[in-house]
């Protein structure tokens, strides 16, 4: 798969979304969302980050590649749209205040949809105050937040503290590049926070939940 | 060491091989945060890039990196480094073209706007769905005309979704009432879908099972064509108009 993501990163950087789509179709043996997102697109975007670190590409190139990746995800979700009725579980997803990385968030939203959750995707860089208003108004069962950069950590902790204490006491999922480095459950809101380092973990968790297990703390 | 480029309009630093800052010019003071090492004025997420690329005595042309402004905001810059014979280096920072940043933030705004519109559409769709559901329930009222006669006039089109919703509400209402005969009136129905009729068949069988006599009135000739494709008409009385049914 690593070879494939290196090749795909070149196509992403050329800005050719059609070629990206055809390459993915050729590469993936079956139409599996996790295979595409976790094993192909994620390593591709990580590789692109490394290329910037090696000074081989610029931030502008990175933005272009992100836009193509975004297109690929939107296109895939459009074609995979299911007519299954939504269940009563609600999830709200957003990136912490100041955080502009959103591809992972979008992928997570798609995984929730796969399990027929009612999904509100509020995008990256959502001010905490707005998030709080939205949570109080819409009362989601789960709030999924992401951050990529280490200095978002204080803001993320503050968000967890505020949102965990809203009336509905939602479960809070933390994802993104920052996720493996945090020990959220120890602090702010114990018993209510789940760190989800990968989409596969999220998938497993949702599978548990769909089999009737409580969405609170199935995996922690 | 006197600084040769004190008045240069670009930010310039003199560093040693440990990347410690020896000197800086006025433009550097104005543009970037203060510190003792080159690392201090570079965003922490860019430190690996700085560490991997800036090595003693290696000339660098245009290393794109995030620096920190005096107020710790992130600034995208290109870094140029050249080493002198005294084992020190001059580092020049060139801020990225403002127009590029403008275009980038403009694009961000546009994509946010699209996301918002998408969200508003979603909310409008949800409202429309609720209204539609309400409309369906209202379009088939259960009217008790006498002690033992009730009328269900159906309005609009008859499709799968509608017949399913109608079936649930009507069965409940009929069960709780004392009527014996139910007239289902089709005068206000424009178009019948075959699958909608199948749903209606279930409703009628259910009502018959509960012991009601069913009369169907107001069928249009086009409705009849659809109706005769099904074979559940045995126990139903058909009458031409509601008037004759009553």
TrEMBL record, chain A:
This is Cobalamin B12-binding domain-containing protein. InterPro entries: Cbl-bd_cap, Cobalamin-bd, Cobalamin-bd_sf, Meth_synthase_dom. SUPFAM superfamilies: Cobalamin (vitamin B12)-binding domain. Residues 88-216 form the B12-binding domain. It comes from Sporosarcina quadrami.
From TrEMBL, chain B:
PANTHER family: BLUE-LIGHT PHOTORECEPTOR, RSBT ANTAGONIST PROTEIN RSBS-RELATED. Keywords: Coiled coil. It holds the Pfam family STAS. Residues 107-134 form a coiled coil. The keyword Coiled coil applies. Residues 139-246 form the STAS domain. InterPro entries: Bact_StressResp_Reg, STAS_dom, STAS_dom_sf. This is STAS domain-containing protein.
């Amino acid at each position: 798969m690593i070879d494939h993501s290196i090749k795909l990163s070149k196509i992403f950087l050329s800005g050719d979304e059609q070629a990206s789509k055809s390459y993915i179709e050729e590469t993936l043996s079956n139409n599996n969302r996790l295979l595409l997102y976790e094993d192909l697109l994620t390593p591709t975007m990580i590789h692109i980050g490394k290329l910037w670190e090696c000074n081989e590409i610029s931030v502008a190139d990175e933005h272009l590649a992100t836009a193509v990746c975004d297109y690929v995800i939107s296109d895939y979700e459009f074609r995979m749209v299911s007519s299954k009725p939504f269940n009563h579980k609600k999830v709200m997803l957003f990136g912490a205040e100041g955080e502009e990385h959103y591809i992972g968030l979008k992928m997570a939203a798609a995984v929730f949809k796969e399990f027929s959750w009612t999904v509100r995707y509020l995008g990256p860089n959502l001010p905490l105050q707005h998030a709080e208003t939205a949570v109080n108004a819409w009362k989601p069962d789960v709030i999924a937040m992401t951050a990529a950069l280490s200095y978002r950590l204080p803001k993320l902790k503050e968000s967890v503290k505020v949102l965990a204490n809203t009336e509905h006491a939602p479960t809070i999922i933390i994802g993104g590049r920052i996720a493996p480095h945090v020990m959220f459950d120890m602090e702010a809101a114990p018993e209510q926070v789940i760190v989800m380092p990968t989409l596969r973990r999220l998938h497993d968790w949702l599978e548990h939940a769909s089999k009737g297990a409580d969405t609170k703390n199935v995996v922690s | 060491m006197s600084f040769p480029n004190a008045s240069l309009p670009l930010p310039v630093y003199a560093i040693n091989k440990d990347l410690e800052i020896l000197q800086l010019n006025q433009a550097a003071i104005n543009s970037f945060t203060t510190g003792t090492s080159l690392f201090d004025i570079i965003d922490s997420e860019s430190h690996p890039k700085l560490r991997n690329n800036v090595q003693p005595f290696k000339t660098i042309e245009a290393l794109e990196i995030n620096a920190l402004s005096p107020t710790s905001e992130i600034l995208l810059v290109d870094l140029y480094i050249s080493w002198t014979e005294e084992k020190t280096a001059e580092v020049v920072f060139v801020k990225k073209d403002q127009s590029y940043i403008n275009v980038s933030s403009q694009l961000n705004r546009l994509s946010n706007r699209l996301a918002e519109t998408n969200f508003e559409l979603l909310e409008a769709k949800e409202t429309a769905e609720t209204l539609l559901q309400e409309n369906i329930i209202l379009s088939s009222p259960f009217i008790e005309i006498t002690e033992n006669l009730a009328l269900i006039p159906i309005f609009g089109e008859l499709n799968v979704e509608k017949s399913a919703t109608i079936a649930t509400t009507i069965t409940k209402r009929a069960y709780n009432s004392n009527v014996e005969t139910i007239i289902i009136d089709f005068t206000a129905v424009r178009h019948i879908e075959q699958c909608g009729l199948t749903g209606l068949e279930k409703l009628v069988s259910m009502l018959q099972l509960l012991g009601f006599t069913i009369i169907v009135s107001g069928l249009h000739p086009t409705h009849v064509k659809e109706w005769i494709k099904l074979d559940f008409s045995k126990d139903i009385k058909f009458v031409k108009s509601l008037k004759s049914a009553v």
